[in-house]
Amino acid sequence: MARNSNLNSVEYNRFLKREKGKTVLVHFLRCLVLILFFALWELLARYEVIDSFIISYPSKIIQTFNNLVAEGTILTHIKITLVETIFSFLLSTIIGLFTAIILWWSKWIRDVAEPYIIVLNALPKIALGPVIILIVGAGYNAIITMSVLITVVITTIDMLSGFMNTDKNKLLLLKSMNATKMQILLKLVLPSSRANFVSIMKINVGLSWVGTIMGEYLVSKAGLGYLLVYGSQVFRLDLVMCSTVLLCILAGGMYSIVYLLEKYLLKNSKKF
Q1: Are 111 and 54 in contact (CB under 8 A)?
Q2: Which pLDDT score is estimated for 272?
């Protein structure tokens, strides 16, 4: 018996080492692909295989970034866009979650609101730009409102779908035990939708950045979206590419935070 236990322990340790090795290899390959991409981009631009004026190249982007740092402006633009994106991400996630709870709670409200939610989701939000500016004013309010409108509908639809797909047998079990609707929500529906909620947060990261940049296109006088517009207007395409790369880095960092949150939630989740 002890011998079998030792063998199992050895096999388990080998399994953990293999999994750790796979994880290290994946991270290494990711870094290698990124390095090769930038190296190839630089070489193609240097040897004029691609038009460096239009898409710039890595060393030029770094030079542009250093110039912006020396001017003392880039950190302000990054801060403004980052704050707008984080605030709209949190706001839309919270509003979407509570809206989904209300729709799950009341079938009557769900039946009435469903077609309007579908139409609002299909509507190009950029078309509402002038209306948003007139209602909430130009500036940060309009940018955040635009981002929230883009994100909140998707959050509501996906979260409600997760609620409605809760295990029917477990629902019947709780109902047979005379559980209240609040108890069913807190003890079953929300916990069983934890993975779905984290998945929605991942989607919201990208949508929040899209909404913020779209809002900055319309009304902003500062931020990375403003730099994109300004750079294209004055044909400083190195500034456009520099802003684009910064957006990719910031979006990747924000996604990484959500990924770590996902690991924490799923690790500490309790099965019903």
Answers
A1: no
A2: 43
Whether pTM > 0.85 for this model: the answer is: no
Residue 80 tokens read as: 């403004």
Q: Do residues 133 and 80 lie in contact, with contact meaning Cβ atoms separated by under 8 Å?
A: no
Residues 154 and 123: their CA atoms lie apart, in Å, by 12
Distance CA 195, CA 161 (A): 12
Tokens 């779905």 correspond to 196
User: Read out DSSP for 159-206?
Assistant: HHHHHHTS-HHHHHHHHHTT--HHHHIIIIIHHHTHHHHHHHHHHHHH
Q: How far apart are CA 69 and CA 37, in angstroms?
A: 25
User: What are the strands, taking DSSP E only, across the chain?
Assistant: none
Tell me the pLDDT tens digit for each residue of 46-61. 887 887 777 788 888 8
